[in-house]
Amino acid sequence: MRTSRPARAGQYTALLAYLVFLAFPFLWLVSTAFKPPRELGSLHPTWIPKDPTLANFRQAFDEQPLLHAALNSLLAALGAAVVAVLIATPMAYVVARRRTRLAKAVTGWVVVSQAFPFVLLIIPLFLVLKNLGLINSVPGLVLVYVVWALPFALWMLAGYVRAVPPELEEAAAVDGAGRVRTLVSVTAPLLAPGIVATGLFAFITAWNEFFFALVLLKTPEKQTLPVVLTHFIGAEGVADLGPLAAAAFLATLPSLAVFAIIQRRITGGMLTGAVKS
Q1: What's the pLDDT tens digit per position in 227-249?
Q2: In sequence order, what are the beta bridge partners of 239?
Q3: Do residue 113 and residue 187 come from a single domain?
């Protein structure tokens, strides 16, 4: 069935309006980051700065330890991504290949766990980390991020495993390979795109996370980049708008770059999980 021209025009108009709606906050952030103070306080703001400046970026780096906070965020995000993938890969293999009640229960629990609000999880997580001596530490934050990212990583990788023909694993079994050898030598190489996409997704979510880092990290030298950004807001709630916009712009670039790389792979993983051979 062909779509009429007016219908197509309406669809493209709606899509363009949606893209503008999504892009507006980021474009305004970029514009604010390069505006001098007199333009930030203007009653008639403009999209393009009339006198662009880098003073906001210099002030942001002078006022807050952005590089050290970015390093903490990088360590936490990389650690969470690597550990989540290492745990989720064999779990996804079992869930996808074992059609048992336990596997179905695990899948159902993955879906249900995503409905829990963070505020219900923070107290049990805080107590567990306190008993382990991991409060106010990057390894403790990594552990929390792994718990947070693991359900989605498991669900996503299970879709990739289901797309791998079982005949390849049966052929490996005929040749004498065990389950572990089959997973490592046969299935894992075919899962490489899914593993990369899942790891990068876990990296993005950990890089942008704010709530857990705010509660669990107390000393300034341990805080991550999203938490440090709140320091540009004064005690009375008045924001130092220029430096805040500059720091937020720099903090957004890594996650935008990573998401631009993996967005097709994420979509492919979701579609793969919905298709049965």
Answers
A1: 999 888 876 667 788 899 999 99
A2: 233
A3: yes
Helices 192-208 and 66-97, axial angle in degrees (round to 10) = 140
Least confident of 50-64, 65-79, 102-116: 102-116
Q: For 187-219, write each residue's pLDDT tens digit.
A: 778 888 888 888 888 998 899 999 899 988 988
Query: To which residue do tokens 């403790």 refer?
Result: 140
CA distance 32 to 96: 48
The residue type found at 108 is G
Q: What is the DSSP letter of 222?
A: G
- Residue 239: phi and psi, rounded to 5, are -90, 140
Number of domains in the chain: 2
What is the C-alpha separation between 127 and 133, in angstroms, rounded? Answer: 10
Distance CA 147, CA 172 (A): 33
Question: How far is 35 from 49, CA to CA, in rounded Å?
Answer: 5
If 0-12 CB within 10 Å is exposed, 13-18 middle and 19+ buried, where does residue 119 land?
Answer: exposed
User: Do 37 and 72 fall into the same domain?
Assistant: no
Name, in order, each residue with C-beta under 8 angstroms of 29's C-beta and a sequence gap of 6 or more.
245, 248, 249, 252
Q: Which residue has the tokens 């493209």?
A: 12
Same domain for 17 and 104?
A: no
